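Protein: Dystrobrevin
Species: Sphaeramia orbicularis
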Amino acid sequence: MIEDCRRSSDNMADRRQLFVEMRAQDLDSIRLSTYRTACKLRFVQKKCNLHLVDIWNVIEAFRENGLNAMDLNAELTVARLEVVLSTIFYQLNKRMPTTHQINVDQCISLLLNFLLAAYDPEGHGKISVFVVKMTLATICGGKILDKLRYIFSQISDSAGIMVYSQFDQFLREVLKLPMAVFEGPSFGYSEQAARTCFPQQKKVSLNTFLDTLMSDPPPQCLVWLPLMHRLANVENVFHPVECSYCHTESMMGFRYRCQQCHNYQLCQDCFWRGHASGSHSNQHQMKEYTSWKSPAKKLSHALSKSLSCASSREPLHPMFPEMPDKPLNLAHIFLTPVCIFFIISLLESSNHQDEEHSLIARYAARLAADAAAQQQRVPTDLPCSLDANKQQRQLIAELESKNREILQEIQRLRLQHEEASQPPPDRGQQNPTLLAELRLLRQRKDELEQRMSTLQESRRELMVQLEQLMMLLKTQGPGSPRSSPSHTISRPIPTPIHSDSAGTTPTHTPQDSLMGVGGDVQEAFAQGPRRNLRNDLLIAADSITNTMSSLVKELNSGKTEQQINKICMEYVKDKSKFLCIKFTELQRNYRTTLKKTENCRYFVYAAKIDWYKKQME
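Structure follows.
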């Protein structure tokens, strides 16, 4: 008794908590009863996390708990109803990621207390199966089309025709939901409610039922039901439009545009609460928008609609066959004696077990009976089922092959787009051989430039030495001071021309004759045609040496000083002139050959560098 009182007090606390939080949302300030009712039921739906559960999850929970095999007028206890709700929310938690787990106990408690407050206000502790099915199918999430199809399957006969008494009972029970959120005066039940929905219809099929409840506008007593689904669909819709009353830069949810005032638009909060400004009035006709379209998109849509020959309006729902699917024949299913004995033993001990345990035992017995019947069944329709399965497998294989082709085409187009969007890569990065060769060519170019500068410096040194030699030759002309033969012979010879001693035959090598010249000049003289000029220069130097030897002999022969001077002047004049000519020609040829050789090499390497640059670009 104490536990029952404590549980009752907890239930009352949970009910008060739900309604206190609903009042905190200030939903009663919405002036239109349709929006007010839809917003309140949407709040209950989200608070209990039923917006995450669709009709198929609810049907699966009914099947797991055996409600699909029970009579619609049968009654469920509160404990049994709690088991059904536990199945729904525990299965939901299995589908949710670990980071978005819900509080299952809180959801079960809130939804259970809301259902008891709506359908068991006297506290009898029992609710019919029909009420549980219709209520959960109405306030769960998912598509309204699927929910209405399930509701029609519960209120129609085997021929697929709606039973008016069942539809009237559906309205009686489902309209208790608005009453539970204090909207009974606007959407209460009346005796004429069923006839107002289908005034002149003798037989109501599934298509007629869907056309009526999904029409615009729907029946007055159920106008809040499609609006609740529209609320769920537009909760995250963004409108980049400023509200004309609260001047919010953008809107979320519904958007309302006045049909009389120019460019006067309101957000859903301002419209629901009756706010108006300027010349706008609440009596003006407003149009509801559930999406945003740019002016260009509106113009293109209007043009395509005006130019299209056929009507582009799509039906509200797909058309279904008039006759329902043939139900499965379950007459061959029977219980074995072992299963019957097992069930009887469970029923005899039911007073000592919990109701949930007996329900689990009943499911186990049913599964055992199904397995035994499956073994005893004669497969009469086996060939037909095999053919159907074979066709289905072929169709699945074709669809999978098409899917693979489409995925390959998408991958190919994606690769082409990525290649087109990326800048062309550097070829030097792709070909390291070209990069290394370019680096070597640049290094060779720097070496050649350094070599040219060295050769220029050597050329200047050679010019200085040639000038010194010319000055030396000039000093030995007619105006030179007289000196003794021994003094003339002992005069130092310039470094480019080297002789061991007077009166000896020249036997030195070309390298010995160029000992005083720089290494670069030696390298230049040691190449090809330029050896002729070098040999001529050496021959001239040797001729001078021989002449000086002859001069010494003449001096020793006893001739007069005047005769000796004359002979010396003739020899010096002739040989000096010949030596100057040879040196000048040597200088000119060396300069020309050096320029041609080094410039040719330089331009060859420069051309190769330019060619590699073009290849890499």
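Remarks: Residues 380-422 form one domain.
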